[in-house]
Amino acid sequence: MITIEVLLFAAAREAAGAGSIRVELPDDATVGDAFAHLRVAHPALGPVLGASRAAVDEEFAPPSRSLSNGDTMAVLPPVSGG
Amino acid sequence: MITIEVLLFAAAREAAGAGSIRVELPDDATVGDAFAHLRVAHPALGPVLGASRAAVDEEFAPPSRSLSNGDTMAVLPPVSGG
Amino acid sequence: MEPFGVTAEPLDVQALAAFIADSGAGAIVTFLGVSRESSNDANQVERPVETLWYEAYGPMALRKLREIGAETTSRFDIRGVACWHRTGEVAIGEASVAIAVSAPHRGDAFDACRFVIEQIKTSLPVWKRERFADGEEWVEGYGGEAGSARA
Amino acid sequence: MEPFGVTAEPLDVQALAAFIADSGAGAIVTFLGVSRESSNDANQVERPVETLWYEAYGPMALRKLREIGAETTSRFDIRGVACWHRTGEVAIGEASVAIAVSAPHRGDAFDACRFVIEQIKTSLPVWKRERFADGEEWVEGYGGEAGSARA
C-alpha cells in the first residue's frame, strides 16, 4: 500500500469539507484509481470529480499517471482565473 | 484670384526652407492646382509633393477639392508617427 | 522584482512594465483583468456582484506562470514578459491579473500579451468565487485544454 | 485630464489607464510605442539611433486623435479610450505614443487598442526624424490610406 496526500481546491474543497486528505491506495495505483477511490470514500465529491483535472507534483497529470508513496495529488475543478 | 496659406511639414518644410508660404491661385483652383503651382514655383518641392497628401481645414482633402480665399492647405509627407 | 507571482496584495502593472522595459523594445503592451460590478450567472442572467475572491493552488500557479512565460518567449519575438495574479478578496474595479510584454515590434507585443491571458484562463490553477445579494458561487471555468486529459 | 492630446512632455500611460477605468470594464489594455536604440535605414541596414524627434501638425493631429477615438468607440464594445502622442526630442526608451482602452471583455480591449495604433500609423499627421552617427533622416512613412486620395 502507498499513502498519498490529496489537495482539494474551490468546489472540491467545499464538497469534501477539507483542503487536504490522506488516502491509502494499492502499490500500482494510478491517478484514475485515486479518483475512483475518492468517489467511493467521499460521495459528495462525485459531481466535481467528474469535471476536475488532476495534478501530481504541481503538474497536470493524466488518469494513467502512476502514483508513488508520499506523492501529492491535487484535484483541480475547472479553473476561472484571469 | 484667391490667396491661400500653405503649411509645410517635415521633408516638405525642409525642401521649401519654410514652414508656410502664401500662394495666389485662380478663383476656381483645386488642391491639385495648388500642388501643380507649387511644383513650378518651388522646384525643390517636386519629389516630396509626389508622395504627399493634402489637408484643408485640418482634414485630408483629395486633389479635386475646391479652394477658397483664405483657406489653409497643408502638405503632408508620408506620416511616421506612433 | 520577480517577473511572475501570486499575491494577496494589489497588483502594480506599472512596475511590471518598468521591469520588462528594454532598449531594444519598440512596443510595450499591458493587460489588466479587472473585477466587474456585474456578472452573468449560470443562466446568463446579469447580476450585481458584491464581493469576489480568488483561490489559488499557489505553488503550482507560480510554476504555471513561469511555464507560460517560457512558452510565450519561445513562440513570439519578445524582449520581456511578466505576469502576476492576485488572490483573496478583490474589490470591484481592482485588478485580478496584470500582464506586461515588451517586443521590438507591436504585433508580437499584442499577440504575446493576448497569448498569456488565454493560457492563464485555461490552465492557471486559480478559482473565482462571486458573492451576489442572494448567494454566492464558484464561477464556471475552463475544464480542459488541448493535450491534457481529465482524470 | 483630456483623453486625447499632443504634447512635448513625457507621456503617462498610467494616468490614461486611470482615466478610462470604468466599473463595467473587465479588461484594460495599454500600448506604449517606445523609441528604440536602433532602426533600419532605407536599405534595411540596422543602425544605432542617437536621438529622435517627432514633428506634428498639432491642431490636425489632435482632431485626428479624437476622430480615431470616436471611430474606435463605434467599432468595438468598449467603455473608454484615450491616446496621447509626444512631439519634440524623445530619448531612447521613452514613449512616443500611449494608448489605453477599457472594455467589458478582453477581446474588444485588445482589438480596439490595436486598431488605434494602426490608425495612428497610417493617418496621424506626425513625422519621425532619426539622427545616426553619420547623418539624420525622416523615417519613411505611410503615404496613403484606403479612401484617401493623393494630391
Write a structural description:
The complex is a heterotetramer, with two copies of chain A (82 residues) and two copies of chain C (151 residues). In chain A, strand 3 (53-56) and strand 4 (59-61) form a beta hairpin. The model of chain A has no long low-confidence stretch (mean pLDDT 97). With 82 residues, chain A is an alpha+beta fold. A five-stranded mixed beta sheet of chain A has the order 2-1-5-3-4. Chain A contains three helices and five strands; from the N terminus they run E-H-E-H-H-E-E-E. Chain A has one domain (2-76): Beta-grasp domain (Ubiquitin-like (UB roll), Roll). Chain C has 151 residues and is an alpha+beta fold. Chain C has one domain (4-138): Aldehyde Oxidoreductase, domain 3 (Alpha-Beta Complex), CATH 3.90.1170. Helices cover 29% and strands 36% of the residues of chain C. Chain C has helices at residues 13-20, 58-75, 106-123, and strands spanning 4-7, 27-34, 38-40, 46-48, 51-56, 80-86, 88-90, 95-103, 126-132, 135-138. In chain C, the strands form three sheets. Chain C has a four-stranded mixed beta sheet with strand order 1-6-8-2, with helices on both faces. In chain C, strand 9 (126-132) and strand 10 (135-138) form a beta hairpin. In chain C, helix 2 runs antiparallel to helix 3 (106-123). The longest helix of chain C has 18 residues, at 58-75. Chain C is elongated. Chain C starts with a strand and ends in a 13-residue tail after the last strand. The model of chain C is unreliable at 145-151 (pLDDT under 50). The interface between A and C is medium-sized, with 30 and 34 residues.
